[in-house]
Amino acid sequence: MGRIETTEQVFEELFHGTPVTNEGNDPEFMRILQRFIFGDISQTGTLDSKHRELVTVTVLSVLQTLPQIKAHVQAALNVSCTPVELREAIYQCAPFIGIPKTLNAISMMDEVFTANHISLPLPSQETRADSSRYEAGLAIQSPLYGSEIKDAYSWLPEPYASALPQYLTAYCFGDFYTRTGLSLKDRELLVFVMLVAMDGISHPLAAHFKGALKAGNTKEELLAALFQELPYIGFPKTMDALNCIKEELIKESGR
Prior knowledge:
Elements: H1 3-15, H2 27-40, H3 49-63, H4 66-78, H5 83-91, H6 94-97, H7 99-115, H8 133-145, H9 148-152, H10 160-177, H11 184-197, H12 202-214, H13 219-228, H14 230-233, H15 235-244, H16 246-250
């Protein structure tokens, strides 16, 4: 199957429609981007359509491209992502991109859910009492990352030296990673692509690449996820990310 035919097939699967031929004010640009995203990128690597759309929704949430978030939430539903999986992917953005941007993405997601007659609020995915959020978060964080944040910021004066790692453990891991709806493997894959889409992420990106491997992802899956976001973040960020994880990528590990 040729590139144009592949684009048509993938576009139908995701959006239940046909790609641009000569419609609209900028059909040439739309043909270029659609054939690149759906004719080239969608065929690169081993991720299935569901994970490609979870990656895309996550990256668009980081970038705050709100109309595209809506389009790809719908596409994700069309390829069998559950509403809970989509919600968890967007909720987990909060510790990394901040609460206001996450709320923007949630608003777009909820509009799509409402249009699809999906009853809100969705079922709760909480698994622990508020009093145990730190301990529950630490049980997930420690095997993946050890105490590197606590060690790295021990130079801060108190109470900040204690507060930063405590908040990270309780909020990022205790409030989000302990939730059901997404596996730990998928959460780490999505955090990896979040960090790639952000600026100034060399140290956390390398750490989360290793963490994603520990959580069960393969190097191939992480590379496929990184290439999936290339059209949305551009080549410079993609190549910067590859340079950040180069040492891990070239290690002989059998993964």
